[in-house]
Amino acid sequence: MAGQFIVEVAGVIVFLLGFAFLVRFWGLSKLKRAASMEFPKENCVNKNGNGEGEGEGVGTTDIIIVGAGVAGAALAYSLGKDGRRVRVIERDLNAPNRIAGEGLLPGGYLKLIELGLEDCLEQIDAQRILGYTLNKDGKEALVSFPFEKFQSHVVGRTFHNGRFVQRLRKKAASLHNVSLEQGTVTFLLEENGIVKGVHYKDKSGQLLTAYAPLTIVCDGCFSNLRRSLCHSKVDIPSYFVGFILTNCKLPKEEYGVFILADLSPIVFYQISSTEIRCLVDVPSQNLPSVSNGEMAHYLKTLVAPKVLPELYDSFISAIEKKDNIRIIPNKIMAGAPHLCRNNGSSKNQTKLQNRICKNEARSIEAKENKAKQKQ
């Protein structure tokens, strides 16, 4: 019964991971088709040093993309290769330092090939991954990704997120009709409920306004623009506690490890030839603090006993290493677009919608601030 349970859980995990990735890039394909429409209107970026009025036009743009992460950079390259004039505005063009977005399933690698981006996995010490071993109550089940229909090079990949993102950005910027600019988008420019462009501050702090017929927001899970586009209802059921293990090897080469512990499920996977990422899922209720040592104590006393013997010593060493433990929220964000937009509603209805959105925004901000205080 235990073995059957592990296999069933394994199937669900693999299905959900694959489905999430395919849905994400199915949306990218739709955007690419939408972007192939004609854009006859001249568009420009206007300089606005004091925040009032409009200044000199300095270029033309078909599409503005806010954010140059995995989605934004890949989309910029795809649309640029299609002949679109793309302006990408990214808050920080330095390499991201994240504890998520560190893996592609085989379907994701196939999508990279389709987009002409497979070389972005080269020269970053990316590791092959063929599947996972699932462990529960001393029993183990091996779950491999289905490769029967593919060539031998089509496997999963795991890597440092920042290295992968920088390669994607470099690839996008190699196109003459794609520009990457460091800047912070403060809000969307709207006319009668239609987005016409963005207001943003460039790296020097100068206020600018960029116009385009199509604006795509790809600024991640901590987006400050989502609230202006939808009724942003966010639930945070748990947090990922992440850190890096060194001087050890996974039990089975090219396979990650899932440990289905009752209190906190644990996952291990290789992100370079010398490093293993560990993620521990910790419930939101009474999240231990990193800064005062509570989290390290939690991991040592409640999580470590569930870790495989061959990883145990490196697990303890990683916990004790200074500034190695990091936390990110696992967010559930239901789609509810256009709730805060002026779509022909009466003034009273619009005011009510905006008030609902502001209250929801305060609730989300309070949750995120509480999480930051724990770190």
Compact description:
The chain is of the alpha+beta class and 375 residues long.
| Topology order in helix (H) and strand (E) letters | HEEHEEHEEEEHEEEEHEEEEHHEH
Unreliable spans: 1-45, 47-58
Number of domains: 2
Classified by CATH, the class of the largest domain is Alpha Beta
Q: How many extended strands?
A: 17
In DSSP terms (H or I, runs of 4 or more residues), the helix count works out at 8
Cα-atom Rg, whole angstroms?
Answer: 23 Å
| CATH fold category name of the largest domain | FAD/NAD(P)-binding domain
CATH superfamily of the largest domain: FAD/NAD(P)-binding domain
The proportion of strand residues reads 25-35%
Roughly how many Å apart are the termini? 40 Å
Q: Label the CATH architecture of the largest domain.
A: 3-Layer(bba) Sandwich
Which structural class is indicated by helix and strand composition? alpha+beta
Strands of the widest sheet, in order across it, are 1-11-10-9-3-2-12
Main sheet: strands, sense, barrel: 7 strands, mixed
Shape: globular
Mean pLDDT score: 81
Helix content: 25-40%
EC number: 1.14.14.17
Keywords: FAD, Flavoprotein, Membrane, Oxidoreductase, Transmembrane, Transmembrane helix
Function: Catalyzes the stereospecific oxidation of squalene to (S)-2,3-epoxysqualene, and is considered to be a rate-limiting enzyme in steroid biosynthesis.
Domain Squalene epoxidase: 212-335
